[in-house]
Every structure is written in structure tokens, then in C-alpha cells.
Specification:
single chain, 154 residues, seven-stranded mixed sheet, 7 strands, [Ribosomal protein bS18]-alanine N-acetyltransferase, ribonucleoprotein
């Protein structure tokens, strides 16, 4: 089931809600704090928000790590409130980030837990391929991560 949920810019005032969602979504892996989200925004990274009414139900962020002529970007995070999953919100957030990267003709990288099949399949459907394995990438759980890459699209 897909629902249309407005996507707009993440605001510093959303940081506390993002941190709450992080604790729900990533309880065993050092979830980001509200300060971490504010720091990302203040650093000028591109973050998006999905909202149902006034409630933030999803967030996503990307940062450029290399400029032209071979621009590269990293997706830092994507999270969707469990009560709002399976509605296409994560995919819409991902596509919003990829549009930003494609505008700069950037290759995009990300890490995803090796046991997160749903996320990996979504990334693959959007053009990512597994290019590496990072053992014990997530802490403190020690979970492994796939490194994935997507070439820019014209």
C-alpha cells in the first residue's frame, strides 16, 4: 500500500522527534541524538522529512563527500516510524535524496545492515549494488554492513 505523504526539509525543531524515532528504530546500535541531527543540519547536509499532519513520521539525510568532477555522496540515515511503514515513505525519502545527488551527477554510497533484507531490496530496486562488506560496522551490536553504491543517473 502506498500513501502520499508530504516530503519537505527537515528542520532543527524536528531533531528531538528524530532522536525518538532513532531510539525506536536502532535500539541496539547507538542511535543518533537530537544534537547529532542539529549538527548535520548546521553542517549544511541535505535532510528531508515526511509528515502526516504535524507529526514527523520519517527522515533521511545525505552529505556530499567529494565534489566535481567526480562527485560522491553518502546517505547518512533513513528512518520511518514503524507505525507508518509499508506505505512507500522510505522509498519517497530515498528518491528525494537521490534527486539531489543526481542533480550533482554524484555517485552515492550507503551502508545497510546485512540482516536488513527489506532495506537492501529497496536500495537494489533504486539502482544500488553491493560493493563491499564492513564487518562489525554497527556498534555496540557488532552487526555487519553491506556497502552499496549507485552511479548517477542522467
Amino acid at each position: 500500500m502506498t500513501a502520499t505523504v508530504p516530503i519537505d526539509a527537515l528542520r532543527e525543531s524536528d531533531a528531538q522527534r528524530c532522536a525518538e524515532l532513532e531510539r525506536m528504530l536502532f535500539p541496539g546500535d547507538d542511535p543518533w541524538s537530537a544534537r547529532a541531527f542539529r549538527d548535520e543540519l548546521r553542517a549544511g547536509h541535505h535532510y528531508l522529512a515526511a509528515r502526516v499532519g504535524d507529526e514527523l513520521v520519517g527522515y533521511a539525510g545525505i552529505a556530499f563527500v567529494a565534489g566535481p568532477p567526480q562527485a560522491e555522496a553518502e546517505i547518512h540515515t533513513i528512518g520511518v516510524d514503524p507505525a507508518h511503514r509499508r506505505r512507500g515513505i522510505g522509498r519517497d525519502l530515498l528518491r528525494g535524496l537521490l534527486a539531489v545527488a543526481d542533480a550533482e551527477h554524484a555517485t552515492v554510497f550507503l551502508e545497510v545492515r546485512t540482516d536488513n533484507d527489506a532495506a537492501r531490496l529497496m536500495y537494489e530496486a533504486e539502482g544500488f549494488t553491493v560493493v563491499g562488506l564492513r564487518r562489525r560496522y554497527y556498534s555496540p551490536s557488532g552487526a555487519d554492513a553491506h556497502t552499496m553504491r549507485r552511479e548517477p543517473t542522467p
